[in-house]
Amino acid sequence: LEVRNNMLHCSASMSLLLAASTVNAVRLGGAPTMRRAVMPQMVATSPQVQPDAISAEAPLHVLIAGAGVGGLALANQLELSNSHVTYTVLERTNEFRKFGGPIQLASNAMESLKNLDAELYSEIEARATWTGNRTNGIKDGIRNEWYAKFDLESPAKSRGMPYTCVVERPELQEIMMRRTSKHIRTASGVESYRDNADGSITAVLDGGAEVHGDVLIGADGIWSNVRASMTDTPSRGDESGVSYSGYTVFAGELNYGGGDPECGYKVYIGPGQYFVITDIGRGRYQWYAFLARPADSEASEEKPEGMGPYLRNLFEGWSPEIHDIVGVTKESEIEQRDLYD
């Protein structure tokens, strides 16, 4: 088995596809002649290859940095691989809590999950809110007229694929951790790694502790310390490869009875800003207000009356739907953050 030492930033969908290719490679590992080698995604290994074969007595130990969708998808496949492989997921946070809003799983991501693991797919499907079989598109924010509607239904239907859906992040993590929780270490963010003379890898954690393995998979997000260590660049800042998008975003999530049941999501666009409303299921909606602003504008733009009134003023003259949903959103239900690519 020969896989080049490469690194990729991947969406959740791409991570699932990589998990599929990885587990297929690992399933070949039951053969006693298989040697340790680099796996796909953002992977770090020593340039030396250990002479010993992978076996029940000497299994391949995979370290996965990050317990997001990509990291947990890979962990689930390693759990089911029936190969001589062990794994440890190293997660930075102390606990899994709600953050960042629901996750949209496109048709190809759902199809990948279905093919990878029918049981896991059925659990996710049971908690999904389908949006790909409804109206989705872009509207003029001021005239409140449709610019374009996206047909997400026909491509999925013609290929026999599931529709695009959204799933609450904590629920998705709960499902994906059901098999893998005993292999997850929280409060164990990977700070860096080093290659060892025997061909193994040592992951150095935030607090200085060390974890040893044969392969390190970097699934630690946009501010990846694995990537930074691999490329000898900072994980943040100008040389990190991560750039500011030019937008800051306000996000709100709430119980809302005024939504359009025919729509999955709407994007209202206008000069220098746009607004998104999406159904996330069970009577809950999420909205996003994207504003073209310099980085760190949160500290420089005063909002004496709160974020809701601030946004309603900025979107004055826009669709009444925007003002209605923002108007009933509590201040505690709104968060602001800058967007980076």
Automatic annotation (TrEMBL):
Entries under InterPro entries matching the protein: FAD-bd (IPR002938), FAD/NAD-bd_sf (IPR036188)
Signal peptide limits: 1-25
Pfam families: FAD_binding_3 (PF01494)
Residue span, FAD-binding domain: 61-232
Lineage: superkingdom: Eukaryota
GO molecular function annotations of the record: FAD binding; oxidoreductase activity
Names of required cofactors: FAD
Keywords of the record: FAD, Flavoprotein, Oxidoreductase, Signal
Official protein name in the record: FAD-binding domain-containing protein
Organism: Phaeocystis antarctica
Lineage, top ranks: Eukaryota, Haptista, Haptophyta, Prymnesiophyceae, Phaeocystales
